[in-house]
TrEMBL record:
Pfam family, one: ABC_tran
SMART domains given in the database record: AAA
Organism lineage string: Bacteria, Bacillati, Actinomycetota, Actinomycetes, Bifidobacteriales
InterPro entries in alphabetical order: AAA+_ATPase (IPR003593), ABC_transporter-like_ATP-bd (IPR003439), ABC_transporter-like_CS (IPR017871), ABC_transporter_ATP-bind (IPR050166), P-loop_NTPase (IPR027417)
Any GO MF annotation of the entry: ATP binding
SUPFAM superfamilies xref list: P-loop containing nucleoside triphosphate hydrolases (SSF52540)
Name this polypeptide is given: ABC transporter ATP-binding protein
Domain (ABC transporter): residue spans on this chain: 12-218
PANTHER family, A to Z: ALIPHATIC SULFONATES IMPORT ATP-BINDING PROTEIN SSUB (PTHR42788:SF13), TAURINE IMPORT ATP-BINDING PROTEIN-RELATED (PTHR42788)
């Protein structure tokens, strides 16, 4: 990732990207896409195709083997991990408001803003519940609320429905629709068609498999 960053245009610009780890073949090559502020992109592909890896390349955690990832200058990146996590004895409202309080928003305003986002994600009625008492779907939605309250420019979401039964997965997918239009560039790694369906753009990693196989079978 360049340190200078994009001055204008998309939030995320990926060009001719290819990646392999030591011990893996080329996962994909010639991957190219842009995500503008306010757009959502679903990255799909089977298990092991490199969806989570793509998120880590965008985040700059891994350096791509080929090609480049450019982010808009000064863009703040937030990542919602696959497994919801939170302190068991904290309330939903505390957890949601924390990123705002940490950005020195006065607590009343922080709580008001957090309540607004909780409401959008169907969690306002659970504001006083402890994290430990949430269902899997509620906990996953809280992670999205918390990420939004961090006010990122780029939001990376890894498998938001993987742990959920169909009904909760559907609720989370519906909530993901709300991410569009908040001005963030959102990239969601998913194998769930219901999630891909609510995104503006789709990138199927199977379309970028290296020619002549993965290289695993060579030599
Ligand atoms: N740090 C690493 N070092 C070596 N190999 C890795 C590393 N991270 C991932 N891999 C390998 O790269 C491949 C892609 O992994 P990745 O986790 O990105 O796939 P995925 O599409 O997210 O899969 P899933 O749907 O199961 O989450 C896998 O074969 C994985 O074992
Ligand atoms: Mg993954």
């Amino acid at each position: 990732m360049t340190k200078t960053g994009i001055q204008q245009g998309p939030m995320v610009l990926v060009s001719d990207l290819g990646h392999r780890f030591t011990g893996t073949g080329m996962l994909y090559q010639h991957v190219a896409f842009t995500v503008a502020a306010g757009q959502t992109l679903a990255v799909t592909g089977p298990s092991g195709s490199g969806k989570s890896t793509l998120l880590s390349l965008v985040a700059g955690w891994d350096r791509p083997t080929c090609g480049r990832v450019d982010l808009q200058q000064g863009a703040r990146v937030c990542w919602v991990f696959q497994n919801p996590y939170g302190p068991n004895r904290r309330t939903v409202l505390d957890i949601a408001a924390f990123p705002l309080v940490a950005q020195e928003e006065p607590r009343p305003q922080a709580e008001e803003e957090a309540r607004g986002v909780l409401d959008q994600f169907g969690l306002l009625g659970r504001a006083r519940a402890h994290f430990a008492d949430l269902s899997g779907g509620e906990a996953q939605r809280l992670m999205l609320v918390r990420a939004i309250c961090s006010r990122p420019d780029i939001l990376l979401v890894d498998e938001p429905t993987a742990q959920l039964d169909m009904r909760s997965a559907r609720q989370v997918a519906d909530s993901l629709r709300l991410l569009a239009g908040r001005g963030m560039a959102v990239i969601i790694a998913t194998h769930d068609p219901a999630v891909a369906q609510v995104c503006d753009l789709t990138l199927d990693l199977e379309d970028y498999l290296p020619e002549g196989g993965t290289g695993d079978e060579a030599g």
